[in-house]
Amino acid sequence: MKNNENLRVIVYVSELTSDVAIIDKTLKDIITSANRFNEEHKIYGALFYHNQRFLQLIEGEHDKLSLLMDKLYADTRHTNLKVVVDAPIGVRTYEDWTLDLFNLSENQKIDFDHIITIKKMFDAQCKMDGWLFVQTIKDYINLT
Ligand SMILES: Cc1cc2nc3c(=O)[nH]c(=O)nc-3n(C[C@H](O)[C@H](O)[C@H](O)COP(=O)(O)O)c2cc1C
User: Fold this and answer.
1) pLDDT value at position 127?
2) Which residue minimizes the CA distance to atom 19 of ligand 1?
3) CA-closest residue to ligand 1 atom 7
4) In this protein, which residues make up the domain named BLUF (predicted)?
């Protein structure tokens, strides 16, 4: 894989504002947008949804991620968007899909705030890696 200094990974958390009753449609609409925009701009990553909260990880070129972040900040379907990771990465760790969706059940024990602790662990121990980060989150919430 070619090293690219412009590659970054961003992880943010946010809160749903649109009607929870239509969450399936909302997620479907998001994925439809992502399939088009992310594919075109070579942005790859994962979206977790749980109890009206989102956690999204995106990897791509710095300029392309900025375009997407502008859209995300302007999107009224969610609010309180807080970036928890914004770091350069040497190589892409996601190549195969545009946005991998994890719609987690209400009963799943998960605390997105804990992600900030996971991020701190990363800072202390190793270089940020999108794929490993998502694996760590999946491990934490017992997803295979
Ligand atoms: C939690 C969340 C995650 C989203 N993720 C993406 C994404 O990865 N890619 C994308 O193109 N749009 C994503 N969207 C939708 C964008 O905010 C925006 O609505 C969409 O890109 C259409 O933009 P446009 O109206 O400027 O064409 C997301 C929206 C939400 C609420």
Assistant:
1) 63
2) 75
3) 34
4) 7-100
Q: What is the structure's pLDDT at 128?
A: 61
13 in a domain, yes or no?
yes
Is 74 a residue whose pLDDT tops 80? yes
The owner of tokens 């701009």 is 41
**Cα–Cα distance, 52 to 63 (Å, whole number):** 29
Say if CB 79 and CB 133 are below 8 A apart. no
Overall domain count for the chain: 1
In which domain, by residue range, is 58 found? Answer: 7-140
Nearest CA owner, ligand 1 atom 11: 34
* CATH assignment at residue 117: 3.30.70.100
Answer yes or no: is 2 within a domain: no
pTM: 0.86
65 lines ligand 1 (CB under 6 A): no
Q: What is the CA(38)–ligand 1 centre distance, in A? A: 9
Residues with Cβ within 8 Å of 49's Cβ and at least 6 positions away in sequence, in order, are: 16, 23, 27, 101, 102, 103, 104
User: 77-132 pLDDT, tens per residue?
Assistant: 999 999 988 888 877 877 766 788 888 877 777 777 777 676 666 666 666 677 77
Query: Which pLDDT score is estimated for 89?
Result: 83
Q: Is residue 47 in a domain?
A: yes
Tell me, using a 6 A CB cutoff, whether residue 98 lines ligand 1.
no
* Ligand 1 atom 9, closest CA: 34
